[in-house]
Predict the 3D structure of the following.
Amino acid sequence: MTLQGIAASSGVAIAKAYRLELPDLSFDKKTIEDTAKEVQRLEDALTVSKSELEKIREHAKKEMGEEHAEIFSAHLLVLDDPELINPIKEKIEYDKKSAEESLQEIAAMFIDMFKNMDNAYMRERAADIKDVTERVLAHLLGAVFPNPALINEEVIIIANDLTPSDTAQLNREFVKGFATDIGGRTSHSAIMARSLEIPAIVGTKDITAKVENGDMIIVDGLDGVVLINPSEEEINTYRDKQTNFAKQKEEWAKLKDEATTSKDGQHVELGGNIGTPEDVQGVINNGGEAVGLYRTEFLYMGKSQLPTEEEQYEAYKSVLEQMGDKPVVVRTLDVGGDKELSYLDLPKEMNPFLGFRAIRFCLENENVFRPQLRALLRASAHGNLKIMFPMIATLEEFRQAKAILLDEKEALKNEGHTISDSIEVGIMVEIPSTAVLAKQFAKEVDFFSIGTNDLIQYTMAADRMNERVSYLYQPYHPAILTLVNNVIEAAHSEGKWAGMCGEMAGDPIAIPILLGLGLDEFSMSATSILPARTQIRDLSKEKIAANKDKLLAMSTAEEVVAFMKELTE
């Protein structure tokens, strides 16, 4: 059987299926005679669960950094909480209920209680209790609870979707790829797959209904195809494809230390997008000339409280030092939308992507914003820092954010800190109003970085996570290209540079278009850098630029793609 999906991360993987799903946790109720033995069963299940969570935490810390590991520290605290565990034991001893029933009843009571609290942080604890008590319940029932971090044989993960905490546990040595029912190229799971450098297919719609544990699976992350229980002949064909792709990667690797120059000698900068200091090595190993986007929100996620100024300083310093004199564009805190922080009482909104998020949140919460700016300014002495404000819709927002930055810069200098005097301050262009007024913005900002993931969904009024309107998520639509062109021209008219840090920057179809429009910097997943460099070396920037007006006069995305294919062949 063959399923078509969205190619989210390049490569070919061949291995057995590992279904990542909760086991059946149903059980029959019964009266217990030997309560001491039942309490011991509970204790044993708690011990095994703690041991698993400690291994998962260590794995997450080693593979993805301290901030990703914090979620599992919170889970361990739940299992050590006497307010939760003692009532379960009492139910066993006094009500003579089984460990399973006692656990489920007490957990349900706590989950209900936390869910109904006013405080967002406390409400979030309900999810922690649910996660960890389901793990304990699975051990009581002898059911296998999914532990991706404990996988010790080569597999392909099959799931409805992968959460950030799922992907934090994946071991690249054994997890050869994954395929999901839902998601798109810009979903968290897709971005994480590219970061982990494993082949992935998302948005297959129903792979979990078609695959059993142990089925042989081929994930073709080059063409967006999944083969279920392929024939020997098909396996051999894909092994050849796998070998050819490995050879292709070796060829790309030869360009690791080369500049990114087009066929007609025009230079552009290729950078990588990162979420943690640990990701920098991937950018360097793949020949990145910059960090074009450091998503700082990962410093804030999976914790029980805000990171301190010192914690942030150390993270930013680490990234800057690793990159040496190469540029590092750091995006200030971008929370809200699909990125919630349990300890911040963010409002529940009808349209969170259009709501109180990113710079809007920071300008109203200077107690959160100022420590980040101070940490960035202090770290600036260790490298080539550029600061970028996200979700800017008006010039007033930019001016207000920059005023706070300059205020903190002055305060730090008065405190005796060394601050770089060459920090560029720019904005992320992801709101159509900003792209339309780019000429006015260009007079005040030092640079633009276009965030296409949001710019496309806002311009086309199409939620990028909603599969029913995914046909409207069109990076090559003339409306999008017109906005992108407007931003680039505005930047150049003021002697500024324009980059792009959305997924479109690493898209092989978009790269020639963006080169022709005059984009200065392309920032993408680290694994896309060398293929992009190879592609650009075969393109004539002048030839594409000469056809820019024709390109922007097109009516549909299909026309754009057909025209560019003809132009670059």
